[in-house]
Write a structure and sequence with these properties.
single chain, alpha+beta, eight-stranded mixed β-sheet, 3 helices
Length: 156
Amino acid sequence: MKRLHVHVSVDDIKRSISFYSALFAAEPSVVKPDYAKWMLEDPRANFAVSTRGREKGLDHLGIQVESSDELHEVYARLRQAGGEIIEQGQTTCCYAKSEKSWIDDPAGIAWETFHTTGESTSYGDGTGENRARIAHEKQGACCAPQPAAKAASACC
């Protein structure tokens, strides 16, 4: 079964943990000095916050799967969706070992597709994520290729 992944960059990890724990009526399953993750069942989501993003707000979205077969199914969907796919492969990020790939949606939001294969005692050195960012000619965030800087525009 697949799980929606949302990663939000925050300034204050303790305040964010308090807020989201109240919002979800659940404590995070992983808490580190710079990171927290909730593995929610209702709604089925992997919701994470960290202080490692380039700026506050939505860092990236994703689809987490539970098996290699599901991962290959999602990879086929990425190819069907079109766009440049960055195949990162095996990596360590967010205190977990995973196999992952990245794609940007038409709005420029980075989508991560991944299968977590184990835990890690470190956040990760960013090696794989940096290769993905370089391939996308992007810089920044924790684990995701980041969209190019946009010119300021007026709103509504």
